[in-house]
From TrEMBL:
UniProt name for this protein: Diamine N-acetyltransferase
Gene behind the chain: speG
Enzyme Commission designation: 2.3.1.57
Presence of the UniProt keyword Acyltransferase in the record: yes
Signal sequence residues: none
UniProt key word Membrane: no
Keywords: Acyltransferase, Transferase
Gene Ontology terms for molecular function: diamine N-acetyltransferase activity
Length: 177
């Protein structure tokens, strides 16, 4: 039986009481370069988003889950995005909001749980991650979990310091028969 609970974290659906956390995270300009955000989100817009967060991944092509610590406090978000059921693939993205919660194995648990869910429940054939050059922590995480580097999108993301390459990592479902 699949359980979206690891040793130190769990993954759960977004709830209405996650509004303040979502507001803080989505308006954190330090992550806008990886999220593609160009302007702040209002609480009203995020409330509408939360009201629709229950919609099926097959309909909206995305699944966002809260990453919760052992005290059930939301410490980040993980997304399956660009879900493509015909070609059985999806992208994966992880954001852990506070530096104090990073580099403690949380990312490993999160990505492992989401891979298991995507491969066994959604019957995904492959997952991919797009990682900005220089993000050594994410590169290490995905390589450690069996994602292989499959390409580089040159000067793909414009940042305040110029353009950066985006590196694509992929993991094929090894559990398929």
């Amino acid at each position: 039986m699949l359980n979206l609970k690891g040793k130190h974290i769990s993954l759960r659906a977004l709830e209405p009481n996650d509004l303040d956390f979502l507001y803080q995270l989505e308006n954190d300009t330090s992550i806008w370069e990886i999220s593609g955000t160009l302007k702040p989100y209002s609480k009203k817009v995020l409330r509408l988003y939360l009201e629709n967060a229950h919609r099926d991944i097959y309909d909206v092509k995305q699944l966002r889950l809260c990453i919760c610590n052992e005290k059930d406090k939301c410490i980040g978000l993980v997304d399956l995005f660009d879900f493509d059921p015909k070609n059985r693939r999806a992208g994966i993205g992880v954001v852990i909001s506070n530096a104090a919660d990073q580099n403690k194995g949380t990312g490993t648990e999160v990505v492992s749980l989401l891979c298991e869910y995507a491969f066994s429940i959604l019957d995904v054939h492959q997952l991919y991650a797009n990682i900005l050059e220089g993000n050594s922590a994410s590169i290490h995480l995905f390589k450690k979990l069996g994602f292989e580097r499959i390409g580089v999108k040159k000067e793909w993301i414009r940042t305040k310091n110029g353009f950066k390459d985006e590196i694509m990592y992929q993991k094929i479902n090894s559990y398929e028969s």
